[in-house]
Design goal:
By secondary structure, the chain is of the alpha+beta class. About 65% of the residues lie in helices and about 15% in strands. Strands 1-2-3-5-4 form a five-stranded antiparallel sheet.
Length: about 240
């Protein structure tokens, strides 16, 4: 499941809330898409000044959630579909109606994927194919997603909970493989919001898979518990 959604070829970062069964979208990204604003933060501030009722209910409809950014996990203002519908009322944009239909479609597709997980994989393949990736690269990328999911599931079983902890452990693996953290690697590749692994070569994907697969194997064998013990185990393997 990708946390980057495309509306008219523009990226909107998102996070899935499994308890609520709802997507939450980064408000700044939505504003940038609907307004073409170069400074969406300032646009949001002006919008709240214009719409006093929206400003009053802002905290309720726009929580701050952990989101993947070029600098790692960061807390950002997000809103679910209902919240975005309210925000859109304050944005005079010809894209408003198409965007509402897009929101409904994204939510429906996610519910379909919960019932049939194979759909998520199929849609991801279709997106990569449309972007011009080769079949061979797509196979490696899909395998890397599966290996990453297995690793994060193992971490979760062993008491790793906070998103920042996942980011720290991921950085340790990346430093062991490439000598760079993910954020540093993005800078080398000239990336900003883009997904780093979507810009890896076949060999880079293979090395990433080997690193994460071996980390999963070690975690199972050593039966590490909690973030600190898991991190120390990772560091010992590097030394």
């Amino acid at each position: 499941m990708s946390n980057i959604k495309l509306f008219e070829s523009k990226q909107i970062r998102s996070v899935w809330n499994d308890e609520e069964k709802k997507w939450y979208f980064v408000v700044e990204d939505v504003v940038a898409v609907l307004t073409d604003s170069k400074d969406p933060k300032q646009y949001v501030k002006r919008m709240k000044l214009r719409d006093k009722e929206l400003a009053k209910g802002w905290v309720q409809i726009v929580p701050t959630l952990w989101i993947d950014t070029s600098g790692g996990k960061q807390k950002m203002s997000c809103a679910n579909t209902e919240g975005l519908f309210r925000i859109i009322q304050s944005i005079p944009s010809p894209k408003a109606e198409p965007f509402k239909r897009w929101l409904a479609k994204v939510g429906y597709e996610r519910l379909e994927e919960i019932e049939n997980p194979e759909l998520a994989s199929k849609r991801a393949r279709e997106i990569y194919k449309a972007k011009g990736y080769s079949d061979d690269w797509i196979e490696k990328r899909m395998r890397s997603i599966a290996i990453r999911d297995e690793l994060t599931d193992e971490w979760k079983k062993r008491g790793v909970r906070e998103q920042i902890e996942y980011a720290i452990l991921t950085a340790e693996i990346s430093k062991a493989i490439f000598g760079l953290t993910p954020s540093q690697y993005k800078q080398v590749k000239g990336l900003k919001r883009e997904n780093l692994r979507d810009h890896m070569t076949d060999l880079e994907l293979i090395f990433s898979m080997l690193g994460e697969a071996s980390t999963t194997k070690i975690a199972k064998a050593k039966n590490s518990k909690g973030f600190i013990e898991t991190k120390e185990l990772r560091e010992k393997k590097q030394s």
